[in-house]
Amino acid sequence: MSSPHLGRHMLLELFDCPYAELNSLEDVRSRLLRITDEIGATRVNENFHHFSPQGISGVVIIAESHLTIHTWPEHGYAAIDLFTCDASIDYDLAERLLVGAFKAGRHERQTLARGQMTVVHPA
After folding, report:
1. Half-sphere exposure at residue 39, Cβ-oriented, CA atoms within 13 angstroms
2. What is the CATH number of domain 7-114?
3. Digit-coded pLDDT (tens) for 86-102
4. pLDDT digits (tens, 9 = 90+) for 49-61
5. Which end of the chain, N or C, is more open, meaning fewer C-beta atoms within 10 Å of its C-beta?
6. What's the pLDDT score for residue 120?
7. Closest C-alpha among 6, 10, 4 to residue 69
């Protein structure tokens, strides 16, 4: 007999994003922090880095797990992961907000169940 999984992990790929949307450290940071709040996650910590000459990697640690981004402005591409252990986080809302925030021309999403637990009953 299986019990529910421990968490969900959304892998979101954004394509055809404008260069400027993916290469401003402060804009990327503020968007992720705003979206974290809008989906009802609890911020714990954050860290963002701007690479030279372009690209940003960032993480928002949330009580429910994490939201990360890695951008390739020269390709109009961003890879975003949202991992949560709280079933009340609305992944459809997160997807819409992230796609809109980075003005993606197209996107792809996968959502995985993480930590599928098996209940073992004593004999």
Report:
1. 29
2. 3.60.90.10
3. 889 999 999 999 999 99
4. 999 999 999 999 9
5. C
6. 63
7. 10
